[in-house]
Amino acid sequence: MQERISMSDLAQSPEPAASASSVLPIHSTEPTPPTPASAASPVSGLPTPSTGAIQRAQWQANGGRRTHKKSRTGCSTSNSHSPASPAHPPSPYPGGVSEGEGGGEPLPLLELELLHNFTTKTYTTLTAGSSLWEFWRDDVVQLGLACDYIMRAVLAVSALHLAYHRPDRRDFYTEAGILLHQKAARSAMRAMAADNEMDKDTAASLFIFSMLTIFFALASPRRSNPDGTFFIGSSSSTSDRGFPDWAFLVSGGKSIMDVLGARGLDTVAAPFLHYGRARWQAHRAKLDEEKSPNSNGPLLAPLRERIARSPAVTADPDLLHTYAHALDELELALVVSQDPATPRDVLDAMVWLWEVSDSLVPLLRGTEPRQEAVAIFAHFCVLLKQHEAHWWLQGWGEHVMVRAHEVLDAEHRSWIEWPMREMGWMGAGGGR
User: Fold this and answer.
1) What are the contacts of 121-126 at 24+ separation with CB within 8 A?
2) What's the predicted TM-score (pTM) here?
3) What residue spans carry the region label Disordered (predicted)?
4) Which residues contact 72 (CB under 8 A, 6 or more apart)?
5) Which of 14, 50, 181, 224 is most open to solvent, judged by the fewest CB atoms within 10 Å of its CB?
6) What distances in angstroms separate CA 260 from CA 142, 257, 267, 354, one per listed residue?
């Protein structure tokens, strides 16, 4: 029996899985009542659109229900040759839903615009390496034609991309993207719960969905807990304040890859996996060749020494091993990022989070996150800051550093002076 993944690894505090009759195609023909504004997002920490926005965007992004077939990838599919919808309400989208001469089948103009934007612009912004652009533009979109939650996730990311570049229509595109992703997450949960054993194609599709969800979560409008902070761990409890939600999504993707194993290289996800592995191996080899006893002194040596002297850490060998592994991997990413001859890629920062998602991340949850773990994570903010050219990552380095500074006590704040200087952040009241 293969390992079973819990959807809670991918989405925290999700809504209960909807019934089969509520599977919503990308474009359908039968009107459906608008979702209440108070409905929780299937992925914790992601915003929920207002009632009025849902009424507008739901008609545009997904106007009704239809039964689905199951493809070999485990994804729901829908028949695009359905009868035309009898009526469509007014929409803020220019031209609304276009009908052909003589009352032909309507065209879902919003979805078409989002797909066009993704395949002409958005796909180049997800990774710096051009070798992966074809993967996002061709392979993932092709998969989306047979997998409804992949297509909706693609369109949701594209909607937030348009919201970023069109501030005059930001609310409309943001709310449309939220609605699309909510439906994608519900469909993904049904796919995960469908079988006792997950085949490699379904696992690969869910892995790609988790990656798209990370982009979506990072690009979504940031919200705060009632206590005014942005480090959130659970939508159901304001006391679980250890880590931003998008970081937990990395853990969900890693859980899926643990199930896939080597079989992932024989799926649609293979180009992404090959690229990430090749970069990690090249960086590791470079560090092994160039590393000298004092080469990384200005970076992580002071932090290593402080952690090694901490009584709470020295008394727990497992904890010391967790911190040492996190520092080793972070050191690799930081050293490579400071080499001007090595092209930077935001994926390098995500790889570190991937590596520590099941060891360091749990220490950042709860009402009292481990001080040493928070200090290590604060150094990760340097990588986030370096990759702010990506529209979906802008502001996150400083955003997380602010919260880390709030969580740390006076003693441990002195541990993060180096990343604060690297980011040009001067502490409380000194940020942008």
Assistant:
1) 121/161, 122/157, 122/158, 122/161, 125/161, 125/390, 125/391, 125/392, 126/157, 126/215, 126/390
2) 0.73
3) 1-106
4) 201
5) 224
6) 21, 5, 9, 15
At 113, list the tokens. Answer: 């615009």
Cβ-contact 361, 247 below 8 angstroms: yes
For residue 261, what are its two tokens?
């194993």
SS3 of 357, please? Answer: coil
Q: Which two tokens stand for residue 88?
A: 């469509």
**Radius of gyration for the chain, computed over Cα atoms and rounded to the nearest angstrom:** 22
Secondary structure (3-state) at 70: strand
Are 179 and 246 a contacting pair, CB within 8 Å? no
Bigger pLDDT: 270 vs 93: 270
**Tens-place pLDDT, residues 277-330:** 887 777 677 666 655 544 444 478 899 999 999 998 999 999 999 999 999 889
114 half-sphere exposure, CB direction, 13 A CA radius: 28
Q: What is the 3-state secondary structure (H, E, C) of 362-423?
A: HHHCCCCCCHHHHHHHHHHHHHHHHCCCCCCCCCHHHHHHHHHHHHCCHHHHHHHHHHHHHH
Burial class (CB in 10 A: 0-12, 13-18, 19+), 387: buried
Closest CA to 181 of 170, 193, 173, 192: 173
